[in-house]
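Now read these lines:
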Amino acid sequence: MRPKPEIPPEIEDYRDRRWRREGARQVSTALEAERFIEQVGFASCLTDSRRPGPSLYVAVCGRRDAVMPRNVQKDEEASAAWLLKDDIIRRANVYYAKLSRGKAMFIAPRMIPHFNAIWGLRRSEEKAALSRNAQKILKVLRKEWEMATADLKTDSGVTDRKAFYAALDELQAAMLVVPEGVYYEPKFTYIWTLSVSRFPDALTTRIKRDVAVKEIARCFLSSAGLTIPGELARVTGLSRPEAGRGNRALVKEGFALMLSPGWYQLSDLQP
């Protein structure tokens, strides 16, 4: 195996500030979480220091080496991040869903059109791209607008648990469906709705794919300071060739410097 590229200490310090990996800047409220997501542009929900990129969980912990424990139910930091996620969903100020590769992510409103340009589906593409189960669930939601999990299972006819959640993951990855609420009483359930009902302007804005890739690369590099080989692809779900094209477009306009193949740094970085 190739050794993992070592990120320079000054870049780690830069990321500590931008990604809230410092005790003095840790996130503890929904408003702080929303500001954090707006600043970084997009962030994972519950990934820890073993995965690259900004993360709500790491920002709640406020330290660079945060690792999610195995028994998350009894961990105060994991519980705090989970409950903040619920609050953020209810507030509807940032986008939240399982996106590429099934990763739960937050997206700032300014970045929604760019992500949608890469992963979103137009209505004319749905029949060819979505499974039958996903189409059934989508049809029900377009009629009812919002539904709890159990009711959506019944009305769509997709009653097998595994098949139902696989179809929901498809719809979330295609940026068609999002959770709009989480309730624990009388029993735990999500409320599901159409993404366009929450972010109509952002999801109807048309952007060319190459522009979207470049802006996603710009967003990540702005918060990371430097990106190493494969990092942008791992964080966003872009393919490595496409991520590379995005970074090279930033070099062409002078926003980034290519230090060596796969290594890109902000041209005006001030650690």
Q: What stands out?
A: The radius of gyration is 19 Å. The mean pLDDT is 93. The domain at 209-266 is CATH 1.10.10.10 (Arc Repressor Mutant, subunit A).
